[in-house]
Amino acid sequence: MSSNIDIAIIGGGSAGMSLAANLAKLSPPPNTRVFEPATREARACHWSLWANEQQATSLRAAVKGRWQRWQLMDTKRRVVHNGGPLSYVSLSSKDYLSHCADQLNDAVQVVPVGVDTVIPCAEGQRLQAGEHAYLATHVFDSRPPKVDSNGLLQHFFGYEIRTRAPVTDAGIVTLMDFRVDQSRGLHFIYVLPFSRHHLLVESTMISKTHEPEHWYTTAIEKWLDARGISVSEQLAQEVGSIPMCAVSAQDPALASIGAAGGALRRSSGYAFSYIQRQTTELAARIHAGHYDVPAPISKQIIFMDDLFNRVLIEYPELASNVFMDMASSLTGEQFARFMSGQASVLDWARVVWAMPKRPFLKELLRV
Hints:
By secondary structure, this protein is α/β, with parallel strands linked by helices.
């Protein structure tokens, strides 16, 4: 016997649980099951975004850090931004997923197993999940996408640490510090100061090839040593790889949401804000009887991001300058809007004008 449900969501990460929470708010909510075998603790990491006061307040249950200022720096320049009405927010993924789970009800539930098979049928899709079978009218797949072996990646390894002595500038996020080894690709250190004694420090690369773990850890150790920061306790490790290229779905026959559904900004790797927009709009569409997945990032932005990434690949010696020039051309609020996909025409004009013209025109002509 199969359990009949209206909606099956494969994967209980950011996209899957965000959609489930939005569906639970509908009146009446559709009969929905989220299939996720992993615990929230096993997938603990940090998700970041730029948020206004209302957005930050709505996420307060999961907020781990919030800052009004952020910086980028290389050997020649330091750009410091104040976001004005927009702050940089870091979320605990575990707390966010728990926050979403708290909003579910009898109609929308999590099933703590993975989906083994999905077979189309006249009534919808038949799912086998462990020992149980389900018949779903609609299925949304939030699993991570497939990435081409030659695709551009943003890959990182980091430590969450406590320091022996208080650090300076605990009120400012370091988005990119390029004063590290650039011999293997675009490389920077990313730092979230949760307090004067509590940091997340990540060594991040933008390239097509992952590095061995010791390469990232050596970079972090050198960065800490250069600033006289001594570690008293290592609280956690964080490792990841974010595609900065076109991706494909795990199952092209299913409707994808999240990164595989186009909710990942290719030039930056930021996804959380786009996932929120996509899942909020999708839930509203479902309530109106429509099940097509909205695209949260426009074709124009995707085109520009791909052009930007081609320049990074073809002109690696310019890469850090490209980011520094972009940051220098914008105010803090403009920078936050640009990174969040809400840039105005004037914001875009400032960025385009700041870019090195010949490399971008050369890559544009190759399209």
